Every structure is written in structure tokens, then in C-alpha cells.
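Exercise 7. Predict the joint structure of the components listed below.
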Amino acid sequence: MLIAVACLLSVAAHAADPDGKQLFHQKCAMCHGPVGMGTGLLARRMKPEVAQLESREDLSAAYVERAARIGILNMPPITRGDVTDAQLASIAQYLSKGKP
Amino acid sequence: MDVPNAPANAATLAKTLKAMSDIVGAAAVFATAEDRDAYSDRFPIDPHRHRPYAAVAPTTAEQVQALVRVAAANRVPIWTVSRGKNLGYGTAAPVVAGSIILDLSRMKMIEVDVENATVLLEPGVGFYDLYEYLQTRNIPLVLSVPGNSWGSVIGNALDRGLGYTPYGEHTRNLCGLEVVLPDGDLVRTGMGAMPNSPSWQLHKYGYGPAWDQLFVQSNFGIVTKAGMWLMPQPEIIRGFDVEMDRMEDLGPLIDAIGPLRREGVLLQSPTIGNWFRAANILTTRKQWTDQPGSLSDDVVTAIRKQFGLGWWGVSLRVYGRETVVQANLDILEKALKAINPMSMKPFSWRPGEPFAPTQGGWMGVPMTFPLQSANWFGGRGGHIGFSPVLTQSGKLAMQQFQRSYARYKEFGMDYQASFAFGERHMLNVNAVLLNLDDPEFMKRFDPFLRTLIADARQHGYGEYRAHIDYMDVVADCYDYNNHALRRLNERIKNALDPAGILAPGKSGIWPSAYRKAGKA
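Solution:
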């Protein structure tokens, strides 16, 4: 069937910041999701069942923020242009499950 | 060439950054030591050689225009990154140390035209962003993604990155750009030059000279929007995963695939890889050997046995309507069987069916797991590309392979290479693995890469893309008529950017001030 008018879809550039979980999936899960580089490499250094950051119980918010900003081993630093300080704080809060 | 530092003094840099902060706001200016490190190269020869002065993150083309004018007024070089994830080619780092990075990560507009299978994007949109956007809206359009899909869709196309589908030559998918020129002017190319054109993303040329490729791998402008073509979802994808047993099988494999690619039986961009492609992602070197130097033939045999690989392998895929796919597949099967492959595993997938994550590249699903190769030496690593443009001749490709393989052994490097088909040409993409924790290794790396470049040049092969440390030496290879191409590029550069502020040194193109100062 012919569509008379092209269906144009757009997304606003600056939607309100979603919560830490959503931000983690937007900003981090490409590497720290099920088949990402980060998960694959962490599985070499710890039990595979906790190689995904969301499964960890030992992360503090401060550690997550430092690790992201300076990078660890093969993880590049995450620039403040890519992830703002406020967004990173949200992500760190989510991954640390409330631990400061 | 020695890498120059930014010509501006500290007071000028500080004044410029303050003026930029007035445009984008202090929260979008990053100038701490940690920020400078974060915007430096992560897979470097020397991590300090290309350290920027600061970074700023505009959110609109208007802000980019204002920032460019400030940079020009103060003669401070700026280096633009779309998302700054160009790993293997400099990451976010500038050629000229002390430059200010324009980080376009926060420009994230996506506008999809479903019926016409196009998208208009801003540079901050990554492959994952666009994939998620299409998936969550059930839009039947397919991406083409590179092996490291962390980066920007536009940025990758502007650096002529590659994927694995029929849309795998990403720069060919560009259709219409919006560009901020070095004087702050804003231009739209192709049909976009008509303010009310409905065909900006449909017709690549407009009227008169077509400019899109002038802004690819160049430093003539800052792309703030780009149109790209997307692949309509195919009814089915079928093909074969082919392994060839012997080193000398490379030539016959290329000669079997080349005619089918040129004829259009294969529309995809197939990539022939060597035995190393799984081991360096899934294992570390220590699991195989503790011997220095290139991996021995015994180790190569052990790796091949564990992963069931030939010396060479290739995944061939045919896309489209089922009846057409089947007809082309029959032709493909006959051609492959004629060269006696070690194995030939059939592949078939329809949209909606499950698939192994390692197969996602052929369906346009973004991935990062290939970057696990950065851990091959067990610590900090990475890769730097060496990718000469070849013909689709099996004989000549075999000769190029033999020359470079001998150099890998001479310099004690582990051979990691692929042969990626274009429609007429072939790219010999070497992602040479780095061991950043071993200074002796890194000392060998630079002469190794320069030797590869020089060897290729002798046979008329130049690279299609280069790391920031090798942009000059690669540009030097393109020297017909006393570097007429470089002279043309630099005449355009000096006409458009008399202050010499946009990415000096990008692709070996230097503004006159740097040439006159003997810095280039």
C-alpha cells in the first residue's frame, strides 16, 4: 500500500534526564550489558555471574564515579561531554544500590 | 614530522576558553587535568603527544558557529569529535597538542523518514542510540555497524568506517550535510541548499558541485547534521560461513568472491579474516604461549584447532526477497565449492528470529565485544590501524599479505589482518594489537608501522584512513605531480580557514601558518 505522506519521527535533543537505571542502559550497557566488552573482560577477573555490573553487590557510588572518569585497564575514561556529572552520579547511585 | 603544539600562549588559551564558556555555559566546559586525560588518545604511541588543552560541548549548530568565530578571532586550534570514540585512530585526541576539543556528544537529534528509508542525524547520535530508536518504534530499517559500535553514526561515516551489510561502506550512505564553515557560516549541501526541499536526504548531488565528500576526512568544516540512507529490512538473510585451510588459499578465495561482488550477486561488504580473529577476543596470549615474538606456527595450529578455523575465513551474506536471495545463494554456493573450502556452514535468518550475538553485525546490531582484543597481552592494550587500498586481485593480495606477514615476524608482532571488499577495491585492514604495558614493545611498534606504510607505498598502495600519528606519512604517499593533491587540499584549506583553526594536520592537511613555521 502506498503511504501518501512520509512518516516523520523525531526525538527531542534534551528530554528530561531519566533515572539511574535508564541512564546505565543508555550510557554503559553497550559494554557492561550481557555481551559487551566490559562484561567479557571482567569475567576474566571475577565470577562470570557478577561480571555484569548490575549484578554486583560490592560497588560504592564513589568507586563507580572514579572508575568511569579515569578508566580502568582496558576501559577508556568516560568524558564529561558524554556523561555529565549529574548523570554519572545517578548511574553510580543505581549500581551501588545506595552505598555511598 | 614533529607534532606541533598549539601556537597560542596560555593567556590566549584561557581567554578563548572563557569566551567559549560564555557561549555554552560553564557546565559544558571541561578543563581539568582529568578532562585532558579523558580526551587524550586511549590507544596511543605516546599518551602525552596529543593532549588537548580543554573540551567544550555545544548543543546546537548556532553554538558551534559562535565557538568557531571565537577560535578564529584568537587563532586557537579546535578539533571536532562527534562522540570521541575513534579508537585505533586517535580516540578524541587532536593532532596538535593544546587544541580545544569541540565535543558534539550532546547533539543527539534523530529524525527518521520511514517511507524513504533515510535518517537525519546530529553527530552525538551513537549506533546504540539509533538502533534503540528504531527497535523501540518497530521501524523496519536496518543499520550497518562497525566492529566497535560505541561511536557516532555520523563520525564513523565521516572517517569512512566500514560495516558488514550491503550498506557497509558507510561514507556512501551520506546524503546531505549541514556544515559550519571555519568563518562561522552555515551551509547545507545538495538539495538542502533549497530551504524547503523535500529531497535533501534523497538526492546526493543537488545542482552544481557536490560537496559532501569535501567534508569527509577533512578539516574544511564541522558537520552538525547529516542525512544517511538506511537499509529497508530484508525478508531474509542467507549465506555461508566459509573456512579455507591453507595460507595460500587467500588468492583463490578473493578471486572467487571478487567477480560476484562486482556483478552484484553479493551486495554485502565481505571481510576475509585470518585465524587470529576469535583468539584475540576470547582469550589472552598467556593462554597460548609465554614466548616473545610473533606467534609460532605451533600456536597458530593450536588456535585454529580450538576454534575450528581455517587460515582464512569469511562470512558471506545475501540480503533481500527470498526468491532472489535463493537464486544468488545458488550461484555463490557453486563458486565457493569450486575452491574446495575446509568448511562451509550455511546461515539463514528472518527478522524476528533469535540469533547468536556474534552474528549481530550482519543484521546491523551494534557490538563492542570485539574490543576485548585490547586485553590480548593481559593488561592495557589496544590497536592501531594500517589499511592500504588494494585491488580485488587474489595474486596481488597474496603478495601484499606475504610482504606484511614477513614484517610482522621481523618485528615480533602477532598477525591480525582482514581483507574487506568494496565494490571494486579491497581494503587490507590490519588492526595491529598494542601492548601498552611493555615499553620495549611500543618502541618497536612505530618503526614497524612506518615500514608497513613504506612497503605498501612501493607497490602503489596507500591507506584509506589513518591514526593521528600517521596522517602525515600516509598523506605523503599521495604525491603525484609533486604533491598536487596536498597542494590543492591546502589551497582550499587556506581559502576557507585563513586563521588555520579547524583541526590543523587532519589527514595531513596543514594551514599555511603551520607550513610557514616549519611545523608541518
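Discussion. Residues 439-458 of chain B form the longest helix (20 residues).
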